[in-house]
Amino acid sequence: MAQDTARQEPTAPAAPARALLPLILPALAVGVGAGLMFLLVSGLAEELQGALWQDLPDALGIGRYSVVWMLVVLTATGVLVGLVVWKAPGHAGPDPATLGLSAAPVRPAVLPGLLVAAMLTLAGGPSLGPENPVIMANAALAFWLGRRLLPRMPGALWPVLAEAATIGALFGTPVAAALVISEALAGRPVKGALWDNLFAPLAAGAAGAMTTALVARPTFDLGLPPLGRPHWGDLLAALVIASAAALPGLAAVYVFPYVHRAFSWLGHPLVALPVGGLVLGLLGALGGRLTLFKGLSEVAELARDPDGRPAGQFAAMAVVKLAALLVAASCGFRGGRIFPSVFIGAAFGLTAHALVPAVPPALGVAAGVLGMLMAVTRQGWVSLFTAAVLVSSPTILALLCVASLPAWLLVTGRPQMQLSTDGRAIR
């Protein structure tokens, strides 16, 4: 039987090298362009954030993160984004609640409004990240330019290259892009060997990652004390924390359609977004400034002193941030849900460390992020990779792999935090 199996012809033969070589230059070009787009959007948003939250309140003599200023800035952000969504061509893209990491190309005329709305969202404080709008912009530009400059290339290739390139730029490594693309390919009928299908996206992801690495040198490492030799107690902690973190994530996923429906009932973006901004300002006043923004810089600040806060404070920040993510993703702000979920998972993991000091903070953070991302995205590889890169500790990877199994049993077959165009949760 084994010999017969070994003699079987592969169902999809590998592509010859001459079929892959022409893909290299287009993939590299898309990768560099996507990385520059990410850096441009992030850089402009950071400059605007500094003006809104530092320069302007200092000039007015108002506390930078006072309750009044949070309410003013977040409500005003809702008004500005609402104006863009209302008046810009294409209304700044589709409803962000219906978008994941993959994006169908939109008309180039939609991109100015989309990018302005995304930068206002990133700067103004709503709890969303840059991934979804930047991927959409890069996919649209790659598709539009690619079809005109290289019409013989398959049109469906350009959005895949843009997605891989943007993910590589966001995470600073092409490994994340390869994992996302391979997970997407698992659900599609594909021809050829896996690495043939990953060849061009991996090249694009590498170019995007190198572009951001050379210009901005991003890092996800939180600088937590590395985990030493693991013990049975560490394995138990990883299993419990990852599964426990998935539960509030699942609760938010089930509530998501109802929150989205409530904001949709308001009817007009110039009503829904300011109301959403006001609610986010109230949540920010409740949770503090670390619960604002996309959460990546804030989670690094949170992790600098894992023993500096009581468990109740970590837990409160996790709950507030989760509520802020629900509101921001439902009312129409343009942004993604991965980076805020990282903050929520990390705060949950630090809660576990504060309750049980024997749980290493690195293990608590990684396991919490793993469970939360699995619940929100239902993408195992992305969740596992993101949790692992936050903690520079090779020994933690085996623990996370084991912890991912019960967490996956909790989330598989459940909805994810993404809606179909009719407002129903996507499973």
- Rg, rounded, reads 22 Å
Distance between the termini: 39 Å
- Tell how many strands the DSSP assignment holds: 0
Question: What portion of residues belong to β-strands?
Answer: under 5%
- Pick out the low-confidence regions: 1-10
Largest sheet: none
Topology of this structure?
Layout: H1 2-7, H2 17-20, H3 24-60, H4 67-87, H5 111-124, H6 131-149, H7 157-171, H8 174-185, H9 194-215, H10 232-265, H11 269-287, H12 296-304, H13 311-331, H14 338-355, H15 361-377, H16 380-389, H17 396-411
Could you please describe the fold and organization of this structure?
The protein is mostly helical. 69% of the residues lie in helices and 0% in strands. It is built from 17 helices and no strands. The longest helix has 37 residues, at 24-60. It is globular. It starts with a helix and ends in a 16-residue tail after the last helix. Mean pLDDT is 89; it is low at 1-10.
What keyword list fits this structure?
single chain; 427 residues; mainly alpha; 17 helices; 69% helix; globular; disordered N terminus
Gist of the model:
With 427 residues, the chain is an all-alpha fold. The chain has 17 helices and no strands. Residues 1-10 have low confidence and may be disordered.
